[in-house]
Amino acid sequence: MTQKITVIRGDGIGPEIMDATLHVLDQLGAGLEYEFADAGIVALEKHGDLMPKETLESIARNKVALKSPLTTPVGGGFTSINVSLRRHFDLYANVRPAISFPNTRSRYENINMITVRENTEGAYLAEGQEVSADGEVAVSGAKVTRKGSERVVRYAFELARATGRKKVTAVHKANIIKSTSGLFLNVAREVAANYPEIEFQEMIVDNACMQLVMRPEQFDVLVTTNLFGDIISDLCAGLVGGLGLAPGANIGENAAIFEAVHGTAPDIAGKGIANPCALLLAAAQMLDHIGQPQNAERLRKAIVATLEAKDSLTGDLGGTGTTMGFAKAIASRI
Ligand code: ATP
Ligand code: MG
């Protein structure tokens, strides 16, 4: 059976890393059919719209998209494309694995965790931001709902269950921010009670940061509100060697979008030297999501084996390989 996915080749290094990723996916024989759709600067030039209606319809139809980084032009009043995609499809869970890989610039070797960040509420509200007329006082609000907390915590537990993970840690600051963080923690406890086979742990965010830096191998799945999740997921990417290997997924009820965490890297765009691994690892997350965990695992193993062999590594990993050369080295190990 073939599964159709929307593929957005994107801006900057986007097309290069996407071509490399599709080359490896073809080798995997996952039965994927690609529906290409434009977004970003390419789309603005072709269709006069950063996020054309056809692209949104394609994602709505296929429910799964693999997306390269996109440029949102500065000025001109454009909202970030990533933010508008998140809003349009109500992509409430941002899921970022942080896994140690060989031969990367990482301080640790045994990290294997996933951060699940609430993506639609918390401190990231457009409304309720105020600065007094004299510029002396600024106020911003935060909103946490039972529904918003419940669905993201449930997602974290379901993910743990589906991938055989053993522990979920809810990260909060309920001791001080009793209202919003308190509600999130209460809901997390309620949801956790439905998953007796998975260990539930609560950790205050400041302690979580220290523990992550000192003993990251103790973590399995982390779930938290928007702002804490934003910070912690970048911290975790840093723990395993940075942007070139950091994938992410944005999950909603009706659509899921898989992407690299890094941006368009204009400084190296068009040179064929970008590391395709982050997008490849996002593709592995996508395979897990669409019910192909064996293929996801084959893909990750091929990436690990290629890193271990230091075969055709790109410049960010200390090699001299090209984007497509690296992809071919990975494909040859599948
Ligand atoms: P954007 O505005 O789209 O976020 P940026 O200038 O912030 O772009 P990033 O893509 O966030 O750039 O990257 C920051 C740095 O990391 C750049 O120097 C870039 O070259 C490097 N980098 C990012 N992704 C990769 C990659 N896949 N392979 C190699 N280097 C990368
Ligand atoms: Mg950037």
UniProtKB/TrEMBL annotation:
Span of domain Isopropylmalate dehydrogenase-like: 4-330
GO molecular function: isocitrate dehydrogenase (NAD+) activity; magnesium ion binding; NAD binding
Domain of life of the organism encoding this protein: Bacteria
Keyword set, alphabetical order: Oxidoreductase
Enzyme Commission number(s): 1.1.1.41
GO biological process, alphabetically ordered: isocitrate metabolic process; tricarboxylic acid cycle
Gene3D superfamilies: Isopropylmalate Dehydrogenase (3.40.718.10)
One Pfam family cited in the UniProt record for this chain: Iso_dh
EC class of the enzyme, as a word: oxidoreductase
PANTHER family documented for this protein: DECARBOXYLATING DEHYDROGENASES-ISOCITRATE, ISOPROPYLMALATE, TARTRATE (PTHR11835), ISOCITRATE DEHYDROGENASE [NAD] SUBUNIT ALPHA, MITOCHONDRIAL (PTHR11835:SF34)
Family that this chain belongs to: Belongs to the isocitrate and isopropylmalate dehydrogenases family.
Full protein name: Isocitrate dehydrogenase (NAD(+))
Organism listed in the record: Pseudoxanthomonas suwonensis (strain 11-1)
Classification lineage: Bacteria, Pseudomonadati, Pseudomonadota, Gammaproteobacteria, Lysobacterales
